[in-house]
Structures are given as C-alpha cells and as structure tokens.
Write a structure and sequence with these properties.
- The protein is of the alpha+beta class.
- The chain has 3 domains: 27-81, LysM domain (Membrane-bound Lytic Murein Transglycosylase D, Chain A), CATH 3.10.350; 95-113 and 225-326, no CATH class; 124-217, Beta Barrel (Elongation Factor Tu (Ef-tu), domain 3), CATH 2.40.30.
- It contains 6 helices and 17 strands.
- Strands 3, 4, 5, 6, 7, 8 and 9 form a 7-stranded antiparallel β-sheet that branches. Strands 10-11-16-15-12-17 form a 6-stranded antiparallel β-sheet, covered by helices on one side. A two-stranded antiparallel ribbon has the order 1-2.
- A hairpin with a 2-residue loop joins strand 4 (135-142) and strand 5 (145-151).
- The radius of gyration is 23 Å and the shape is elongated.
- The model is unreliable at 1-25, 80-95 and 235-239 (pLDDT under 50).
- It holds the Pfam family LysM.
C-alpha cells in the first residue's frame, strides 16, 4: 500500500528526485520495436500482461498507452518492483476537510515567500496580449550602459518608472483555438525616453545568455499573496477536463505545475485540488476513457489567468506529470 507523505516546501523537490532515482535504480531501459504494446511488454518482461500499468507509471511522457513509437525509449520495471503499479486502497480524504487539513501548510508557504518568488519569476500571456506589449527591437551597449529600444509602447508607460523584462520560455495549447506563452522574467528596465509608441529603456539588470531572445517589457503587476482565509476545498468545476500542462521540477523551493484552466473556467486562487494518475484507460467507442482511482497528491492554485493557472504541489504520493487529471 502506498503511504501518504506530506511534503513541505523544499522537501517536495527532494522527494521527487529521490523517487525518480529509486525508479531508475529498479528499472531497465528498453527501445520500442515496431508492433510493441504495453501489455505485450508486460507479459514478456514481467510475466503478466495485466502489469502494463506499471510500465505506464514509469513513463509519464507516454500520454496514449496504445500508441507506442518505434525507436523511442521506455523504462521497464524489474520483477522486484511488482508493487509499483498497484493502486492505493486507503480512504479518499474528505473534500470538505482539505481546507482545514492544509491551512497550516498554506500559511507556511505564504510566510516563506515561495509563492511570491515563483509568481515574480514567471507570467503567462496570449498571442493577443503579446501583440499589444512593447517588444524590444534592439538591445545595445552604449558606453557603460546597456539600453533597449522598444516599439508598441503605450501611454500607460511613464518615464522614470521601472518595468520587468520577459522572454518567452515555452508555449502551450490550453484551449482548442488558443495558445498561452510562458514568460520568464530576465531583467528590469527603466524608461528613459519616449516618443509616440517608441521608447528607450535603460536595462538595470539582465539574466545571462538572453541577448538572442525576443524580449518584452510588460506592465508591473505585483503578485498579491494569498490570505489564509482564501484557502478552500475544491469546488465542482464547470469542466472536469482540467489537466496539468507542465511540471516545474527544478525550482529551488518545491514543485509547481501549470494547469490548463483559469478564471474563465471558474478556477480561483486559493483553490485546493487533487491530481490523479492514469492508472487505467480503456478505449471505448473510439475514445480513451479514464477510470477513477485514488488521488496522487494535492495542489494549491495560487495565481490564475484567463485560461491557465499556476499551482504548487503541497503533498504527493506519486510524481505529477503532464496530462494528469486535476479536480
């Protein structure tokens, strides 16, 4: 039986690194051949085709278990890891009790500043929002100063004020017709001169190796930390297809995820939610149907956008991965 483990702050990252190392130590790498299936691999290597879910659980990059790509690599569990794919049988925690159960943990996260630091480093923007944002046309050295020349600078930007500078890190599809861009803060710039929609900024600080990136100067939008009173148990969303889009494993103070729903879908900051692994999926009438299973961990949504949200992993029994279901 899997044990529920509470993971505060930095220990979240330590657990996931340890869990990944343990899974690597008790597994072998296999190159997929044409015609391979998970059930066939389970029968050949584990002696039981019903153990295919153990292989799937070791390979979170595999979104569709029925579509293996020849030449790709999979981790296969050894016979000693027979319990790796078994489901937890412990009682599902009361949804009403989540807020009370995790209120102290959230209070520690807020007081420690981890949510603030993550929100200050990253933001999200749609194509339409970037089209309206000041875009850096040149990033030059002038004497002892580093300056930027930007276009599309609106009247909201004031001479003498400082603004964060961002570079696109990744792009994600969050709805059928809309992409969202993940922006990483790489510096800060002060507006020195402005004429019409063109401006010159003095670059106060910049992360290394960002000269080649397309840079945007965005309006300051300070993150407002959560209040403990805002923490609440999950509410029934209008759409039960909320998913993890991306996992941030390498943050210094915990593990964070990007979700594919936001304020337009009724998701608010302070929401607690479970995430679920794909323990059993069946193809029925041309659709992949996920069957219910025990929650794999608890997330706290702390910053929301129109169709996306940032959340932090508060506790985990199993490592979160892209496409994990959230509710």
């Amino acid at each position: 039986m899997l044990r529920r483990i509470f993971i505060p702050s930095l220990l979240t990252f330590m657990l996931i690194a340890s869990s990944h190392a343990n899974s690597q130590a008790s597994s072998m790498t296999y190159q997929v051949q044409a015609g391979d299936t998970l059930s066939a691999l389970a029968k050949t290597h584990l002696g039981d085709e019903r153990r295919w879910r153990e292989i799937w659980s070791l390979n979170p990059q595999l979104r569709n278990p029925n579509a293996l790509r020849a030449g790709s690599s999979l981790l296969l569990p050894t016979s000693a890891t027979h319990n790796a794919g078994q489901l937890s049988t412990q009682t599902h925690p009361s949804r009403e009790a989540l807020a009370q159960q995790y209120r102290a943990a959230v209070r520690d996260e807020v007081a420690g500043g981890s949510l603030q630091r993550f929100a200050d480093r990253r933001t999200l923007a749609t194509d339409a929002q970037l089209a309206q944002a000041p875009r850096v046309q040149a990033n030059l050295s002038e004497g002892q100063a580093q300056v930027m020349y930007a276009s599309n600078v609106s009247s909201l930007y004031n001479i003498g004020e400082r603004y964060p500078v961002y570079a696109i890190q990744e792009s994600h599809t969050v709805t059928q017709n809309q992409a969202v861009h993940e922006l990483l803060r790489v510096g800060e710039a002060q507006l020195m001169h402005k004429e019409a929609d063109r401006a010159k900024f003095h670059l106060m600080s910049q992360a290394p190796n960002r000269q080649e990136s397309t840079l945007y100067v965005l309006p300051s939008n300070p993150y407002r930390n959560l209040q403990t009173s805002a923490i609440r148990e999950p509410h029934s969303p209008g759409n039960n297809e909320m998913r993890i889009t991306r996992v941030f494993h390498n943050e210094p103070d915990g593990v964070y995820v990007l979700l594919n729903q936001g304020t337009n879908q009724g998701v608010g900051a302070g929401r607690l939610a479970h995430y679920y692994k794909k323990d059993f999926v069946s193809e029925e009438q041309g659709r992949l149907i996920e069957y219910p299973t025990s929650p794999a961990g608890v997330l706290l949504v702390f910053k929301t956008f129109e169709n996306s949200s940032f959340a932090k992993v508060l506790s985990a029994q199993r490592i979160p991965a892209p496409d994990d279901r959230v509710n």
